[in-house]
Amino acid sequence: MADKPTFEANLTSLETIVNQLESGDVPLEQALDQFQKGVALSKQLQATLAGAEKTLTKMMDENGNEVPFEQPKAPDANE
């Protein structure tokens, strides 16, 4: 079974597709195919980032349970 591409590999692939499409030297059929692949890669990358953000905004409490990480509130300028 093939290994799943890394986030970085997918991002590089998306950048390559964007560069090819921006060049305008791609036949229409290939451009449409590349566009569809780019959209799919973009959705994968967004999902990966959303999952990472969700993971990074949690912390463990003293009982070992995951709880949302609450950022300290900025001091009020009026204080």
From TrEMBL:
HAMAP family linked: Exonuc_7_S
Pfam families the record matches: Exonuc_VII_S
Signal peptide residue numbers: none
Subunit structure comment from the entry: Heterooligomer composed of large and small subunits.
Source domain of life: Bacteria
Protein name: Exodeoxyribonuclease 7 small subunit
Keyword field contains Ribosomal protein: no
Cross-referenced InterPro entries: Exonuc_VII_S, Exonuc_VII_ssu_sf
The protein's role, per its UniProt record: Bidirectionally degrades single-stranded DNA into large acid-insoluble oligonucleotides, which are then degraded further into small acid-soluble oligonucleotides.
Annotated GO MF terms: exodeoxyribonuclease VII activity
Keywords noted in UniProt: Cytoplasm, Exonuclease, Hydrolase, Nuclease
Catalytic activity: Exonucleolytic cleavage in either 5'- to 3'- or 3'- to 5'-direction to yield nucleoside 5'-phosphates
Location in the cell: Cytoplasm
Similarity comment text for this entry: Belongs to the XseB family.
Membrane-traversing stretches: none
Entry's EC annotation: 3.1.11.6
